[in-house]
Amino acid sequence: MDKDYKVIEHMADIGLRAFGETKEKLFQNAARGMFFIITGSSGFAKQENEQYWTIKCEGANLEELLVEWLSELLYIHSTDFVILNDFIIKNLTNNNLQAQSYGIKINESPYNIEKEIKAVTYHNLQVIKNEKGYWEATIIFDI
Description:
Layout: E1 5-10, E2 13-20, H1 23-39, E3 51-58, H2 62-80, E4 82-92, E5 96-105, E6 119-120, E7 126-129, E8 135-142
Antiparallel strand pairs: 1-2, 2-8, 3-5, 4-5, 6-8, 7-8
Helix pairs in contact: 1-2
């Protein structure tokens, strides 16, 4: 794959198409893409004062699990005032995810908030394995 994600225009909202050779990469790239939308930056450097969060999600299927994953990251961003910049998937099935995410407090970060995402939606949500064997997801965010 030559791209991990691509921002797509969507009426009053904003969308993301994420890609990955594996489901784990797909979920990582969807998270990276969401924080690219939030910050306008894709080159997150390691920071000295990073913190980490352990994340566990469940979903009825892969699509619901992706929404739960991104929603949990968005919740952490909003409540702990952090920019998450590294996503390590420890375990991923079609119904469960365990991961760690690293980030830095917004006020200690070199990144700005460009767009505020209110929610991850189910509108036009799709997760597929394409004809070349790569995973693709389409996600629309409420801004």
